[in-house]
Amino acid sequence: MKSNNLTNKEIISIGIIGIVTFIISLFTVKAYQVAQFARGSTWNTGGPGSFLPWPREPGHLMIITEMNPIDAFINQLIIETGLLAILSFLLWCIFLFSLYRIIKVYLDKSNDSKD
Predict the structure, then answer these.
(1) For residue 25, which phi and psi values (nearest 5 degrees)?
(2) pTM for the complete prediction?
(3) Chain-centroid distance, C-alpha 109
(4) Across-strand partners of 110?
(5) Residue 76 and residue 40 in contact, taking contact as beta carbons nearer than 8 Å
(6) Which H or E element spans position 38?
(7) CB neighbours of 83 closer than 8 A, spacing ≥ 6?
(8) CA torsion sign, 47 to 51 to 53 to 56?
(9) pLDDT by residue (tens digit) across 61-82?
(10) 3 in a structural domain
(11) Exposed/middle/buried for 27, CB within 10 Å: 0-12, 13-18, 19+?
C-alpha cells in the first residue's frame, strides 16, 4: 500500500510542471496571435515574424515574405493542426491533477491528526 506522504522531489516536480505549464500557455496564446499574420509558409506582412525563441509578429509592410523552414514547420504542423493547444491543455490537466493530489494528501493528513 502506498503511503500518502509526498516527497520533496514530488513537490518540486509539481512546481516545475506548474511553471512549464504557465510558460507553454503564454507561448501558445502569443503563437496563435502571431499565426494570424501567417498563411501556409508565408507571412502576410513583412519583415518576417518568428515563432522562436518567443513568437513575434512580422512588420507592417504590405508584402508577402517567406517563413524560414522552422517557422513554417511550427505554423503548419503544430499551430494549424491545433497540436500546440492540445499540448497546453494536457499540461494543465496534469498540473491540476497534481495539485489535487497535494491537496488531498494534506487534507488526509489533517483529518488523521484530528482522530
Answers:
(1) -65, -45
(2) 0.79
(3) 33
(4) none
(5) yes
(6) strand 38-39
(7) 77
(8) positive
(9) 888 888 889 999 999 999 999 9
(10) no
(11) middle
User: Is 12 contained in some domain?
Assistant: yes
Q: Is residue 2 part of a domain?
A: no
CB burial class (10 A; 0-12, 13-18, 19+) of residue 73? middle
- Range(s) of the domain holding residue 79: 8-114
Could you tell me which residues come within 8 angstroms of residue 45 by beta carbon, excluding any fewer than 6 positions away? Answer: 37, 58, 59, 60, 61, 62, 63, 64, 65
Name the residue among 28, 26, 25, 32 with its Cα closest to residue 91.
25
The total domain count for the chain is: 1
* Beta carbons within 10 angstroms of residue 74's beta carbon: 23
Q: Taking CA 113 as the corner, what is the angle to CA 109 and CA 115, rounded to the nearest 5 degrees?
A: 120
In whole angstroms, what is the distance from residue 41 CA to residue 76 CA? 7
CA distance 76 to 84: 11
Over residues 7-39, the pLDDT tens digits come to 788 888 888 999 999 999 999 999 999 998 888
Examine residue 70 and state whether it is found in any structural domain, yes or no: yes
Which residue is it, cell 504557465? 22
